[in-house]
């Protein structure tokens, strides 16, 4: 059973007990029919309030981080409760059953303020449940983040099989390759730069954006060796790259996916990579024509894993869109507050 299914089950159980308590009171204390109907209508309206707060007002407040939004939202829920209650108990019930809750001469102002009081329990209950679930979800995310961090640190330690030995070996291979083939020697140097960047570690977990761009260029140049002059990729950069910082290896999975599953040897349909920086936002999109002859359906670390990493690194501050019409594949990424 998934977490969402468990949550739905708990909600159903809670409301069943809540409504059942009202019906039990009707049975045990021989309430009159009109009292039962008025109590049930109040219970149903409390449910409406509950989910208006739980699903709309509080999540919107969390996204906007604006107390005015919260205040206006809660006032709107109270007004909704008052209007619905009037429609049910003062209009529908007299028409169907011949009774109402308030007297016909009840002042409108009294009715309004009286219903503000009766509206509070549903709002309070919805808020408490939402805060409790949000706290538990945050704790769950923190545990997951700690586990993933521990796994990443372990993987990093495993990868550190004396990196200086690897660099020295690559430099030695470069010295052997240079007299034979300048292209091969250049590829070895680029590979060394890729490895050095992958093993790079900083205190805040971020690198200069220029280094991420350099990594993309080196990756493309090494990939170009397979196709020589039949490799067509347009890499366009707009905005100031220098001075910007971001977590490393965030952009490469999008490029890797395009090169692996796209057509790269058609000058009429090149792979297009666009990087744009505006203020504190980064826009990155990669598009390619789909290679129908590609048998390998895996996508590197997988875009699903990329989305999960972005959720941890940029919670509420990123959008990632994938478009696939069967012919063209395009991924678009936007990061805020880079």
Automatic annotation (TrEMBL):
Gene3D superfamilies: Histidine kinase-like ATPase, C-terminal domain (3.30.565.10). GO terms for cellular component: membrane. Keywords: Kinase, Membrane, Transferase, Transmembrane, Transmembrane helix. The chain crosses the membrane at residues 12-29, 66-88, 108-132. It comes from the Bacteria. InterPro entries: Bact_2-comp_sensor_kinase, HATPase_C_sf, Sig_transdc_His_kin_internal. Pfam families: His_kinase. Residues 152-231 form the Signal transduction histidine kinase internal region domain. One of its GO terms (molecular function) is phosphorelay sensor kinase activity. Signal peptide: none annotated. This is Histidine kinase. It comes from Pontibacter mangrovi.
């Amino acid at each position: 059973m998934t977490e969402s299914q468990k949550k739905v089950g708990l909600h159903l159980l809670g409301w069943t007990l809540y409504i059942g308590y009202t019906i039990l009171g009707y049975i045990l204390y021989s309430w009159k029919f009109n009292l039962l109907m008025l109590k049930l209508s109040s219970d149903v309206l409390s449910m409406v309030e509950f989910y208006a707060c739980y699903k709309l007002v509080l999540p919107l407040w969390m996204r906007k981080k604006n107390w005015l939004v919260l205040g206006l939202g809660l006032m709107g829920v109270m007004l909704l409760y008052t209007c619905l209650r009037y429609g049910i108990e003062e209009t529908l019930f007299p028409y169907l059953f011949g009774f109402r809750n308030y007297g016909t001469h009840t002042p409108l102002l009294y009715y309004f303020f009286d219903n503000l009081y009766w509206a509070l329990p549903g709002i309070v209950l919805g808020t408490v449940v939402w805060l409790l679930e949000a706290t538990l979800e945050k704790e769950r995310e923190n545990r997951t983040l700690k586990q993933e961090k521990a796994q990443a640190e372990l993987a990093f330690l495993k990868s550190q099989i004396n990196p200086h030995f690897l660099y020295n070996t690559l430099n030695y291979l470069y010295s052997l390759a240079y007299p034979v083939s300048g292209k091969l020697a250049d590829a070895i140097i680029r590979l060394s730069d890729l490895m050095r960047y992958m093993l790079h570690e900083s205190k805040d977990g971020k690198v200069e954006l220029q280094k991420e761009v350099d990594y993309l260029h080196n990756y493309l140049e090494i990939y170009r060796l397979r196709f020589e002059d039949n490799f067509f990729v347009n890499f366009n950069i707009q905005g100031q790259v220098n001075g910007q910082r971001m977590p490393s290896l965030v952009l490469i999975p999008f490029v890797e996916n395009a090169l692996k599953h796209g057509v790269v040897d058609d000058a009429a349909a090149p792979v297009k990579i666009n990087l744009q920086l505006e203020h504190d936002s980064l826009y990155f999109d990669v598009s390619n024509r789909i290679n129908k002859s590609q048998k390998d359906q895996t996508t590197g670390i997988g875009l699903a894993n990329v989305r999960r990493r972005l959720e941890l690194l940029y919670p509420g501050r990123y959008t990632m869109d994938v478009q696939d019409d069967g012919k063209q594949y395009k991924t678009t990424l936007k990061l805020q507050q880079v």
